[in-house]
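Quick one: structure for this chain?
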Amino acid sequence: MKTLIVATDFSKEAENALQYAGAAAQKLQGKVVIFNAFNISSHTGNSLFPASAVKEMIAYNNAILQRKADDLATEFGIEVHCESSMMELDEELDKAIEKYKADLVVMGMAPSSLSQDLFGNTTTSAIAKLKFPVLAIPAGVSFKGIKKILFACDILRGVEQEILNKIKTFAMGVGAQVEVFSVQNKLKALTAEHTARIDEGLQDVDYAYKNVVSTKVIQAIEDEVKAFEADILIMVPHKYSFWSSLVHQSKTRIMASRSEIPLLSIAL
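Got it. Here's what it folds into:
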């Protein structure tokens, strides 16, 4: 975890995520890229708004980003870059990720609310759309090291090798132990057939399995986060078709908005 892109909208949640990333980069001897995508309102765009005024807005936005980059670099003694764009966040993030060969995107997460659970927000949208690891930082959470990682998954369904490779790289990079946690409706013993791929994928990582029975998956994960004293929760978002999405709510999105610890979403 050497290069972190922090997507910011200058909200207090984004500022908290920036502080988290700065402290993490200092600990891991990495660097931070502060990224901001902003749009001019359709009303302004359709009006006789002079081009010079648009340039002033862009320059003002860039100046804010540069000041934040300078402050973060001074505070944590790390390398910090900044990028801004007037295009859509998702599209431009992909470009920034490629440009800086980033390891993951860090975003702030506002406290849970009914509207957020139903419709999501910028962070949950990024989790759903980006084919790239997104680390969602809850409001008020600060970096205190990463020693324990809870990987919540469906062991019986299987875990892709690509996911395991990313978890292994992340865990070994921060020197953390991993608990592979699964929730089932009915208890089924884990066999070598179920765990073979994980055993191979997490070789050289300090890891263990835990399997529980519950019909309340989200609650079971929240309980285990506390019991294991996890520093980070890892989940893999599953894609649904439009019609399926009306029935199935993404557990990753729900956990991102409810979690009291950072959630790392690793997409396929």
